[in-house]
Amino acid sequence: MLKTESRALQAYGAMQIDERKLIEENQSLVTKIAWQVKSFAPDQMEIEDLIQVGLVAMVEAAKNM
Hints:
The chain is mostly helical. 78% of the residues lie in helices and 0% in strands. The longest helix is centred in the middle third of the chain and has 20 residues, at 19-38.
């Protein structure tokens, strides 16, 4: 039974995400979506804020998979 738990933990460790790589690979997509959202958002919202929220949401979603 102990070996099975150890294997499960090793498999889970292999599934953990590399946040930096995830951001680097998808930053342009998040930026594009942020600009699209900006067109419908109030003028007070800055594009940098929308991009930041998008990147954080992407990382959190990947962690919860």
